[in-house]
Amino acid sequence: MTLAIDPSETSTESPAPLSDLVARDAREFGAYVRTGGWTFGLMVARSVRPGGQGAEETPKVSAKEFAELAGCSPERVMRYYKAWDRAADDGLVPHFEALTPGQEVELPDSDVWLSYYVSRNSATSERGTAIAEAAEAEGIRPTKALEVAENPTALRAAILADPSTARAARSALLDRIKEDPDLQTVLARDVVRTADLKKAVATESRSADRIGYVRQIAESGQIKTPAGQTVDAPVELRQEAERHLSLLDELDEDEDTGEWAADAYDTMKNLVVEAVEADPELRVQEKRTKFYSSLQKATKAFEELTFDDAQDFYEDDMVQRLEDLQQAIGSCLAALRGTKGTEGA
Known about the structure:
With 345 residues, the protein is an all-alpha fold. 67% of the residues lie in helices and 2% in strands. It has a two-stranded antiparallel ribbon. β1 and β2 form a beta hairpin.
């Protein structure tokens, strides 16, 4: 009887010798994982001469020569150069003058490299610098912001497809227009030219005015009567305004305030009318104020009439209306004089 034997269990062959090339790749891979872009930054820093240093003073070469040898652009070399320069100013790595070709130094962790290196050409422009600074202020990597800025179509797609991105864009625009008058004008023009937006703005403006009316009563403790008088609000009325205001302030930012604002506004308007009616002295003042207001409007309207060229458009109906007005004024005068006579008696 013959037994089958697994060759893997009986093989006495030793493992294949490790390739020097594989070992070198593994070592370089491990070094790069630990140091990241610092490895390439060091190559530039120790091989490219700093500005102001002549070719006769050092074996280093210019960024252009180094780029030609590397088969890349001088701009790419200079991005590594500037990143190393910034890190040297912060004391993380040696300055260019302290390095010689082939020299090895201890490098920072790879994660730190991203704080100094910006991989995009736009980062060197005034616009790119502003974007990078804003990104740092927001606590994100400049490369992320620069990538978005260089691809507005992708940004538009994200805004159209994702509500959270749209909200972030809206918030950013609101912050931006505070310091950008031109953008304010453009956005305002877009709003008034878009029917749905124009209607929405009008609705929100009306709600804001109503909330402002309630807030003014709650915070100042004064009310404006229908005739235009400003007087102290009764305690109960002010407390009611504060109650409505607290409800409005508790609404979420994205919650529709229209219905709540309308209810608070109508309630306060009715309470103001009731407060006027409940106070005899205030009620008399209100009537007097309304009368004077109407009288002033009528006087102004009559004073604006001109009769210099009346012959050019004279009609009998005009005279009839003036005669009716004269009779109405006479009746008012008689009533007022009669009232005065009654008071005197």
